[in-house]
């Protein structure tokens, strides 16, 4: 219990210390800055990462599901009557299929093993749903988590450059939610409430859609 408390305090201190740094460098995702602070605190107190991971992984993995469901709260404040339904459906279908097909194709061209190829198929969705899909596809869960988090970090880090000429918060938020999942959604909230809501909407709908068609498609081709 004491080790869990220490791990939680290290994580909380790292997050609080990362916030002012993120305000000075908003192009760097808050999560990335907090990760470096966690590493620094572990080195400072000489706490092995394996011990920290063992104590905290179960707790944060459990809380991650609640956080994902809590994204429904900002969706309740959205106005859906002005959404271009046909365009949104087209964007979501294209984003979901391409986010699965491109990483899988790259892994196949690099002659990776079948479980690894299946792991890259989960890149399209956020971590809690990706873990469930990985279980269905018999993919290595650790690799799936790494792929999803890394894609989110990269997407959020380069969002300020890629979206610099996009002034519509709805478009930029939707793009961040679709491409960078939860990390991109957090980055979208820094751009504005409209962008944050559309990011949460894009991430949630894309995750549900992908979780339905991807396992069915893989089982069909097998």
TrEMBL record:
Keyword Transmembrane helix appears in the UniProt entry: yes
GO cellular component, alphabetical, reads: plasma membrane
How does this protein lie in the membrane? Multi-pass membrane protein
Source superkingdom = Bacteria
Q: Which residues cross the membrane?
A: 28-47, 59-77, 89-110, 117-137, 143-162, 174-192, 198-221
Key words of the record: Cell membrane, Membrane, Transmembrane, Transmembrane helix
InterPro entries recorded? CidB/LrgB
A matching Pfam family: LrgB
Where it sits in the cell: the answer is: Cell membrane
Major site of localization recorded for this protein: membrane
Transit peptide keyword on record: no
- Name of the protein: Rhamnonate dehydratase
């Amino acid at each position: 219990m004491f080790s869990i408390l220490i791990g939680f305090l290290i994580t909380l201190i790292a997050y609080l210390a990362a916030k002012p740094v993120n305000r000075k460098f908003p192009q760097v995702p808050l999560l990335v800055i907090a990760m470096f602070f966690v590493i620094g605190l572990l080195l400072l107190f000489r706490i092995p990462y394996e011990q920290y991971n063992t104590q905290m992984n179960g707790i944060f993995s459990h809380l991650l599901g609640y956080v994902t469901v809590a994204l429904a709260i900002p969706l309740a404040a959205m106005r859906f009557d002005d959404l271009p339904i046909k365009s949104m459906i087209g964007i979501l279908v294209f984003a979901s299929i391409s986010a699965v097909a491109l990483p899988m194709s790259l892994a196949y061209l690099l002659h990776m093993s079948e479980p690894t190829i299946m792991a890259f198929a989960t890149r399209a969705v956020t971590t809690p749903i990706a873990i469930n899909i990985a279980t269905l596809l018999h993919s290595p869960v650790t690799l799936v988590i790494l792929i999803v988090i890394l894609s989110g970090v990269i997407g959020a880090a380069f969002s300020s450059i890629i979206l610099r000429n996009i002034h519509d918060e709805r478009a930029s938020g939707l793009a961040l939610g679709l491409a960078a999942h939860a990390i991109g959604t957090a980055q979208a909230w820094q751009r504005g409430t409209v962008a944050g809501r559309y990011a949460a909407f894009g991430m949630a709908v894309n995750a549900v859609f992908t979780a339905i068609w991807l396992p069915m498609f893989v089982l069909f081709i097998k």
